[in-house]
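Narrative progress, year one. The postdoctoral researcher (J.K.) led the effort to move from monomer predictions toward full complexes, under supervision of the PI. The following entry was the first complex the group processed end to end, covering 615 residues in total.
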Amino acid sequence: MNVLGGPLVELRGVSHSYGGKGYALRDINIQVGRPEIVGLVGDNGAGKSSLIKIISGMTVPTSGQIYVKGRQMLQWSTHRSRDMGIETVYQDRALAEQQTIARNIFMGREIVGPFGNLRLKKQHEEAERLMRSIGFTSKAFAPDSIVGNLSGGEKQGVAIARALYFKAELIILDEPTNALSLTEVNKVLGFIRQIKEQGGSAILITHNIFHAHSVADRLVILDRGRITVDIPKAAITAEELVEEMHSVARTGKFALDRYRNPATTEGMVEQ
Amino acid sequence: MIQSSSHDPSIAGDLIADPRRIRASALLLVGRNRGFLSSLVFFLLMLAAFAIFSPGVFLHSAVYTAVFVSLPIFLMLTVGLVFVVVAGEIDLAFPSTVGMCAYVFSGAVSNGWSPFLGLLLAVMCGLVIGSINGILVTYVKLSSLVATLGMQFLLFGIINVLSNGNGITLDALASTRFYSLFVGTVGTFPAQMFWGIAFAGLALYLFTHNRFGSRVCCVGDNAEAAKAMGIDARWVKIQTFMFMGFASALAGVLAVLVDNSFYPTTGQGYLLTIIAAVFIGGTPTWGGVGTIAGAICGACTVGFIETGLIAVGLSGFWTNLFYGLVVILSLVLHRFNRTRGRNG
C-alpha cells in the first residue's frame, strides 16, 4: 500500500438508506490501496451496486466519510469522482458498437488540433500501443476494427484500455465476467491483471468467488449491507471463502473464527 | 505493430508475400466503403443505361450542364441530412426551411438590401430553425419524425401567410456581382457546382476528419455511452439540425438565384427526393454510421433521374415510377452488399 497520502480510496463508517426505509449499506469501512485489486463479492441484494454507486459518485451516502488520497471529499459527485481518477467500466453499456476501437477509446476525449481537426494518425498509434500493452495479442484486431465484431471479453478490454489511457487510478469493474465463456473470462481476468501491472487499482465486483480470488489481492465479502469478511487473498483459499459466504448467509455466524472482521461483525448475530 | 513486426523478418516476409493478406486488406478497404461503392456503382449503371438508350443526349455536355444547374441544391441538402440521420434523427422540416430562408433572402433583396446581407440573414434564419428543431427533439424530447413534420407544416404556413401566396421576382439581381459569383458560369460550367462541391467537401471533412463527425457517429450509435464519456449528446444533435438548417439556407438562396424568383412553394419539391438520395447513398436508417461520399452519389443519382428520363424520351409521368424503382433497387443492393447489419 502506498505510504504517501494514505490509501487511494477509503470509506469510513459509510451507511446508506434509500428514503429512510432500512439500510442498503451499514457502517462500511473499506480501503483500496495502490496498486491493488480488491475483489468485492456478494450475493444479489448484498449492497454491491449501492457501494459502487457511492464510490463512483452517483449516490451520496446518508452518513459516513469518503477519503481519496488522504483527503476527505466534501462535495461528492460523478464529476468529482472522475476528476479524482475513478472510472467505472460496465459490461456492455459503454461502447459504440458500430464504431472502430480507436474511436471508442477516444470517444469524448478525441486528440484534436485546431478547429476540432482530428489527429487520426496519432489516435491510431496511441490506440495500437494501448491495445498491445493491455494484452490484445491477436493480430486480427487493429485500432480500426469495428467493436461490434469483438467478443464480449475483448470489448471489456477496450473499455479498460480506455479508462487506463485517461489516467484512471481506480477502475471499478461491474460484473465483468458475467455471461462470458471460459476463454473469455480468462481474457478479461488477464486485462484486469494488466491494470495493476500499469500501476492502477481496481475493484472487481462479482458474485463468482473463483474469478475474484484468481486476480484480487484482497477479498471483501458483502452480506446484507455489511462487510463480513475483509482479508488478503493469500490468507484464504477460494473454497474456504465459499464456505464463509454460505455460513454467514445462513446463520449470521462465521464458520472459521479467524476470518472475522472485528470492526463490522457487531450486531450481525441478532439479524 | 509495425515496429514490432519489423524486428521479426518472418512476419514482415509474410506481410509482403502472402497474397491472402493482400486480398484481406483489399477486402477490408472495400468493406469500409461498401455503402459508398455500391451507390457509386448504382449511379454509374443508371448513367450507362441512359447513355445506351439516348446516346445522342448523354454523350454531349449540354445535358450535364443542365443537370449541374440544380445539382448543387441536391448535394447540399443530401449531405446535410446525412448528419441528422447518422445522429439517429430525421429532419422533415428542411423543405420549408429552404422556403423560409429563400423568403428571407428575397425579402431582404427586394427591400434594396445587399444580397450578401440577404445571404447572411438567410443563413441565420436556417440556423435558428435548425436549433428550434434540435431543441424540440432533445430538450422537449419529441420524436424528430413528428416534431420536424410539425415544423414543416408550421413554417410552410408562415411562408404562405407572410407572402400572401405571392412570389417575389428579383430581375435586378441577375446583373449583380453576387449573382455571377454564385450562379454565373465559368465557360459553360455553372458556378453553383463549385459551391456545391465545396459544401460536399466541407461535409466530407467534418464527417471523417473532425471531432464533430466522430461525435455524431458516437451519439447516433449509443447515446448513453457517449453521455457516459462526457459528450453532450443533446448539443451534438442540435448541431446536426443546425448544420441541416445551414445547408437549407444555402440551398434556398441558390434556388432563388437559379429561378430569379421566390415562390411560396420554393423548396417543397425536395422532401422525398432528398430523403431518397440519403438512403440511395448507402446511409442506413438506424444511425451511428453513414457515408458522405455515398450521399454525393445518391444526390447525383436523384439529380439525373428527371433530366435523364426526359432525355430518353419518356414523359414526366414516368418520373415517380422511376424514382420508386431506383430507391427500392438501390436499397436491395445495399442490403445484399452489407456483411453485418442490425437485422443480421
